[in-house]
Amino acid sequence: MSSEENSLYTINAEHSQRSIDDIDLEDFAIQPVVKFVVAFLIGGVFFLLPVPYQGEITVPFDIAVSFLTETFPTAVGVYSLAIIVAGGVLTTFAMLGDGTFAGYNLSYFETSNVFWGLRLAGLVLAPIMFFKLGPEILHTPGTGGLMWGSLVYSVGVIIPLGAVFITIFVALGGLEFVGTLARPIMKPLFKVPGRAALDSLASWVGSYSVGLYVTRNVFENGGYHKRDVFTIATCFSTVSIGFVGIVAATLELLHLFPLIFSAYFLCVIITAIILVRLPPIATTPDEYIAEPDPELPFTGSISDYLRLAINEATTKARDGDSFAHAAKRGFIDGVKLTALILGTILAVGLAATLLSANTPVFDILGKPLVPIIAALGIPNAEAVAPATIVGITEMYVPVLLVTETATKAKFFVAVLAVSQLIFFSSVGPMILDMFSDVPIQLRDLVTLFVMRTMILVPLIAGMTHLFAAFGML
């Protein structure tokens, strides 16, 4: 479908708003209703139910990931090694052969030469990291130790496990229900379909990895066009609530967690509202890669939206997969996606963290920001300034730079680090590799990181002083 056809389709859809009276609502049937409710509860409990765990409040999804990675680290390491090697090998067969291997179609693994090289780099690095080979500099806690023992293990488990439960939720009506109710907010504020709320929710409560999986899934089924994907991937692939807690604990600010999270939530909303209206996001074409499946144009009251949401969800549940089939499909898709991106994450992330830990690059880049940070009234400007830049490598590194600073400086960096969103130890290469059919370039991600930082620095400085004035810091 051409760009012109897509644009015409969008224009026609937007000018055919319907009310609840114009829609043929399905007759009530107990089976699809029960199917939707059970799927909704399964997803809701797994991703959203607050439960106490090891002295903290978290969700079952986080507990499951932590249990697997902490209880079976060797098994997770072997699995991570195997899946990175498999990704590199299958990509090589896809790029050099006829696109098949042992009768299987390998078109899923075809990519650009750059990402083929990164997956091969991951294939080489994975055994080095697993067996702790090579120089010690590769295995320090802030570089290889962080990448292999934390990020690679976590992402490797998060995607397949999260995909099982999120696919059940999506395939049996959850996407339609959440998306319909969120339309009055998502479309006017962020220029994306209401269903994008689910991607964001998956990131908030689970992981940006799960959120990006949802985005890819909906994109391939015609639910998003390329500009939608660009917006969601760069503005709503947020770090999870649990990670915000880790940041707060590292800086000994856990007592300020509600304040930090509230500021983070507000920062994500404000930056998204601004950035979706500016290049490079605003100039991305509204082209689909599959038969378009846009949301039904609708206007009505809150009760009308609720009736439509239930109708859309139960219809989807009626026509959707069984629970077992949805879970199986989610797991297979999750494993394939993990094989696709985990080697890239290791290669790019290790390079980024080594650059940060062993060169003065970010100290030099941060120098011009020292007087700006000082002028904004944030203490310890010499430590805070490089922390505003180094977040492009890994979101946790800025936090480690300010552990010995004043409370206001810690609060400022805590909120900034989790709000910048784009970092190249994980989410950057994931976006570039997963969405190679969207015009997202490396320079675009760097540009958006800089734009986000320019918005966030004065915004968070203002919040810091406001909270301090009220005696909250």
UniProtKB/TrEMBL annotation:
Transmembrane segments: 33-53, 73-96, 108-131, 151-175, 229-249, 256-276, 337-357, 369-391, 411-432, 453-472
InterPro entries: Gate_dom (IPR011642)
Coiled coil region boundaries: none
KW Transcription (keyword) present: no
Pfam families: Gate
Keywords, ordered alphabetically: Membrane, Transmembrane, Transmembrane helix
Domain of life: Archaea
Domain Nucleoside transporter/FeoB GTPase Gate residue range list: 153-251
Listed name of the protein: Nucleoside recognition GATE domain-containing membrane protein YjiH
